[in-house]
Specification:
With 345 residues, this protein is of the alpha/beta class. It has one domain: NAD(P)-binding Rossmann-like Domain (Rossmann fold, 3-Layer(aba) Sandwich), CATH 3.40.50. It is built from 11 helices and 15 strands. The strands form 5 sheets. The protein has a 7-stranded parallel β-sheet with strand order 3-2-1-4-5-7-12, with helices on both faces.
C-alpha cells in the first residue's frame, strides 16, 4: 500500500449514493476527494418535479447527503461530465492522481426505458474522462493519472451460468444497462492497450445502505413498509441477489485505491453470498410485522443471478466483507426509521 497516502481523487458522478460514501471514507483515510457531479441523475435536479412520489423524502435525503459532504470539507464541483471542455478544464485544475468514474443511470429499468439518456450519461461521460486521463501532447502522451477506476455492474454477466460467477466467466448481458456497462469495460481495457492507461474495473451487486434514492430493491421495500403499502415482488421470491452493504463495498474500494495489486484487474466486489428476494422481504417483515406482500410476474429483462465469487478480491487486495443481510439490512432499516421519524416529527 505504498505511496497511496494523500492522493487527489476525482469522483465523476460522486455526489450519488455510492460516490458520497466513498468520498467520506477517502477523507477519513487522509486522501483528498473531489466530487464532480451535475446533480441531475438520481440527485437533486431529477426530483424537481412536484408530482414525483416521495419527492419530499428524497430531497431531504439528498440534502442530508450534501450537508454531510460539506461538513467534512469535501469539495463538490457542480459540472456536467458530458461537457468535454468544461470537464477537462476542471480536471486540469484539480490534477487528480486517480479518477473514479461513477456517472451513470444506475437503474436497469430506467435504462431500458430511456436508452439515449443512459448512453449519454454513461458512455459519453466515460469517453470524456478517459480522453483526459490518457494524456496528450502537452505531457508527452503519458497518462495523466496513476489509475482509472471504472464502476461496472453484475448485470454484465446476464443470466448467471452457475450459482457463483467469477470475473473470467463469459459476459452476455441481456438489457440496455448491462450491455452499456460491458461495452464500457471493453472501452476502458482498450484505453489500457492503446494508451497504457492503468485501470481497475469493479463489478458490484445489489448495493444497499443509508441515503440511497436510486430505487434499489431494499430501499423500495423499506419505503413501502414505512408507508404501510404492499411490497411488490416480481417473481415468486426465489430469485437470488448478492446483497452488499455499502460499508463493505466502500472498504473494498479503498483497498483497490490503495493497492498496486489492483492495477489492470477486474473485481467482483460484493458480500460474496447470495440471498433470495424472499429472505430480504422476511427481514423487513421482522421489523414491520403488518406489511403485506404482493407477487407479480417476473420482468422479462431481469436476468437470473446469484453469488459473485469474491475470492480474487480477498486474495489480491485483502477484501473482507463483514455484513450479511441479517446484520447489514437491520442497520439500514434502523437508519431509515430514524430519518423518517425526524422528517415527520
Amino acid at each position: 500500500m505504498k505511496n497511496f497516502r494523500k492522493k487527489k481523487i476525482a469522483l465523476i458522478g460522486g455526489a450519488g449514493f455510492i460516490g458520497h460514501h466513498i468520498a467520506l471514507a477517502l477523507e477519513r483515510r487522509g486522501h483528498a476527494p473531489f466530487i464532480v457531479d451535475s446533480l441531475a441523475v438520481n440527485n437533486i435536479l431529477s426530483f424537481a418535479e412536484f408530482d414525483i412520489k416521495n419527492r419530499k423524502l428524497y430531497r431531504n435525503i439528498l440534502n442530508q447527503r450534501l450537508d454531510i459532504l460539506r461538513e467534512n470539507g469535501i469539495e463538490v464541483n457542480i459540472e456536467d461530465a458530458r461537457d468535454y471542455s468544461a470537464l477537462t478544464k476542471l480536471l486540469g485544475l484539480i490534477k487528480p492522481d486517480i479518477i473514479i468514474h461513477l456517472a451513470a443511470v444506475s437503474h436497469a429499468n430506467k435504462a431500458n426505458k430511456n436508452p439515449h439518456n443512459t448512453f449519454d450519461h454513461s458512455l459519453r461521460t466515460l469517453e470524456n474522462c478517459l480522453d483526459h486521463a490518457r494524456g496528450g501532447k502537452s505531457n508527452n502522451y503519458k497518462p495523466r493519472v496513476e489509475k482509472f477506476i471504472y464502476f461496472s455492474s453484475s448485470m454484465v454477466y446476464g443470466n448467471f451460468s452457475s450459482e457463483s460467477v467469477i470475473e473470467e466467466d463469459i459476459c452476455n448481458p441481456i438489457g440496455i444497462y448491462g450491455t452499456i456497462k460491458y461495452a464500457s469495460e471493453l472501452i476502458v481495457k482498450a484505453y489500457n492497450r492503446v494508451f497504457d492507461l492503468p485501470h481497475t474495473i469493479i463489478r458490484p451487486s445489489a448495493l444497499y445502505g443509508e441515503r440511497c434514492v436510486s430505487g434499489r430493491v431494499g430501499q423500495i421495500f423499506i419505503e413501502k413498509a414505512l408507508m404501510r403499502e404492499k411490497i411488490d415482488i416480481h417473481g415468486n421470491g426465489s430469485d437470488r441477489l448478492d446483497f452488499t452493504y455499502i460499508e463493505d463495498f466502500v472498504s473494498g474500494v479503498i483497498k483497490i485505491i490503495e493497492s498496486d495489486k489492483a492495477i489492470n484487474e477486474t473485481f467482483n466486489l460484493t458480500y460474496g453470498e447470495s440471498r433470495t428476494i424472499g429472505q430480504l422481504a422476511g427481514i423487513v417483515e421482522d421489523q414491520f410485522p403488518d406489511i403485506k406482500i404482493n407477487y407479480l410476474p417476473k420482468e422479462k429483462l431481469t436476468p437470473d443471478r446469484g453469488t459473485l465469487n469474491v475470492d480474487k478480491a480477498r486474495k489480491l487486495i485483502g477484501y473482507k466483507p463483514k455484513f450479511p443481510i441479517e446484520q447489514g439490512f437491520p442497520r439500514y432499516i434502523q437508519w431509515y426509521k430514524t430519518f423518517w421519524e425526524s422528517m415527520n416529527s
